[in-house]
């Protein structure tokens, strides 16, 4: 634990990644302390680990860090972690909605719409994925198509079909067709 916190460079990042991939959820508290690390890459690795492990006890910490996180990639993964840890929580829904409405970074909005697809509150999930389908960025629209396909909900087909003919971006159109 202390060795991890004091570790340098690639070793710490590799250790955080490995913990989240092979360790039981009981090891999640090790990741908790890295959500506030001064290095954005450590915070990002911890957020990815939280998404993978989905430790329910980390909900408050994830949502707290999400509010103050400045790094785009870390914020994106914190949204995914929040949906994995608390898929029925109104604070999670609000954080995803805020990201889809206000975040300027398409990468963050892409992760937000994928996180929306993981929500267990069906109506909120559908509403947020629809918002993603109407985003100005084609990558966000593609991510919305992916989120809808991953959800395997029949209602998604009815939402996706009308979007296909009017999609101006060729790659996003392919995502919509495949979903």
Quick tags:
single chain, 179 residues, mainly alpha, 74% helix, elongated
Outline of the structure:
The protein has 179 residues and is an all-alpha fold.
Q: Report helical residue fraction.
A: over 70%
SSE order, as H and E? HHHHHHHHHHHHH
Question: In what range is the share of β-strand residues?
Answer: under 5%
Q: What is the average of the pLDDT values?
A: 88
Count the E strands.
0
Helical stretch count?
13
The N- and C-terminal alpha carbons lie at a distance of 43 Å
Largest sheet: none
Tell me the Rg in angstroms: 17 Å
- Shape, please? elongated
Q: Given the helix and strand composition, which structural class is it? A: mainly alpha
Can you tell me the residue ranges where pLDDT is under 50 for at least 5 consecutive residues?
1-7
């Amino acid at each position: 634990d202390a060795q991890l916190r004091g570790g340098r460079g690639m070793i710490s990042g590799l250790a955080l990644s490995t913990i989240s991939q092979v360790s039981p959820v009981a090891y999640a508290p090790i990741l908790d302390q890295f959500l506030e690390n001064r290095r954005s890459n450590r915070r990002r690795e911890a957020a990815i680990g939280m998404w993978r492990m989905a430790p329910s006890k980390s909900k408050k910490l994830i949502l707290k860090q999400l509010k103050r996180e400045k790094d785009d990639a870390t914020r994106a993964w914190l949204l995914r972690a929040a949906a994995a840890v608390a898929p029925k929580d109104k604070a999670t829904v609000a954080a995803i909605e805020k990201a889809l409405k206000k975040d300027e970074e398409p990468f963050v909005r892409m992760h937000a719409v994928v996180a929306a697809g993981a929500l267990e509150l069906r109506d909120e999930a559908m509403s947020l994925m629809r918002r993603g389908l109407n985003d100005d960025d084609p990558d966000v629209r593609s991510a919305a198509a992916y989120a809808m396909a991953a959800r395997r909900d029949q209602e998604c087909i009815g939402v996706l079909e009308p979007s296909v003919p009017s999609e101006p971006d060729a790659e996003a159109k392919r995502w919509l067709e495949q979903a």
